[in-house]
Each structure stands twice: as C-alpha cells, then as structure tokens.
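DM from R.C. (forwarded with permission)

"hey, sorry to bug you on a friday — could you get me a structure for this? deadline for the figure draft is monday and I only need the backbone to look sensible"
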Amino acid sequence: MGKVTELGGPASLPIEPMAIEIPERTSLGRWMLNNRWGRWMAAALLWSILGVLFALPGISRPNWSHTLLGALSQWWTWGLITPLIFWTDARLPFKEHQLGMRFLAHLVASVALTILYFYVFLAMRAALGLNAWGVLADKRFLPNIFRESFLWSWLVYWVIFGVRQTFRYYEHYVAGELRIERRTNRRFPWRKKWNFWNIIWRSKKSDLAIT
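My reply, with the result:
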C-alpha cells in the first residue's frame, strides 16, 4: 500500500488474486442455484426469516410462541404457494415485453391462488395446533376471507409477482449483454486484449492514488 512499483511489475497486477477470489465467493451461491435441495433450503430459510421478522412485535407478549408459530405458518404457506405462482407465470404465452398481458392473466390466477393460500394456511395452522380443522369446513369460510383479510394476502401475491418479473427482466438484460459482448469479441478480437490491459492500467492508477 505504501510502495509504488513500476507499471507492468508483478505488484501492480491485482488481476490474478481477483480471478481466484470470485469463484470462492460465489461457489456456495452457485451450488444453491444449481442444486434442487439447495434452492429448497434457501427458500425455507428466506420464508422462515420473514416469519420471524413479522413475529418480532409480538415476541414480548406472554403467548409469544403462538405469535411466532402464526407468523411462520403464514410465510411458510407463501413459500408453498410461490412455486405455483412461478409455474403459472412461466407457462403464460407472452414475451418479456408483454407485461400488460401478463398482468391481466395474473388477475384471474391471483384470485384463485390467494384463495388456495388461505386453505393451505389454515390447514398448516391446524397442523401446528393453532386452530381447529373444522374451520376449513365452515360455510362462512370464504365470505369471511373476502371480508376480513383477502386484500392483504392478495397484495402479497402481487409483491411476489413483482419480484418474479424483476428477476426475469434482469436475466433477459444480462443474457442480451452477453450476446452483444460475444458478437463484438468475434468481430473485433483485439478488444478483449485491449480491455485486459485497460483493467491493469486502471488498477495501477488506483494504486498510485492510494499511495
């Protein structure tokens, strides 16, 4: 950090350590993305964290375990419904830029999957001993849902939909950038070598500025 070396010297080339560090940092993330069990583990952790966060305001109460299990059952249920949302979205016959048509198609799917969410949610609460199984057979079940808590859960559906579309557009953008880069490198092979020496020059300037 204190010593300035000549341009082109061994100490002025931080490119090699960077090439070694990046795979180490991303190996776990790559495994979780490419492995089915890794994805399920990451998803379970994510929904559990959300459940704990939403339970925090009631943790100080005497029946904190009831509050925690209630929040966990809510977000674990969304963890089970989310693959169905993704599955539905992946099978829509619309391109990435047809967001309006995709949105209209999800208007119908959102109502059906949100109703399914409530059935799974109450079944999970019953399995955890938080309510009776008979609630699912109550004739007033659906009217009570639409009157009391449907809107909030419907909004959660659209938040999941928004996150899904954000990742879709990001992946589409990255794939487009990679295609352009490969096409450019095929037409102008000298650019790849020039970019390498440009990185070295910029890193050298950063070392001089720090010194």
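R.C.: lifesaver. Residues 12-210 form one domain.
me: no worries. The chain has one domain: 12-210.
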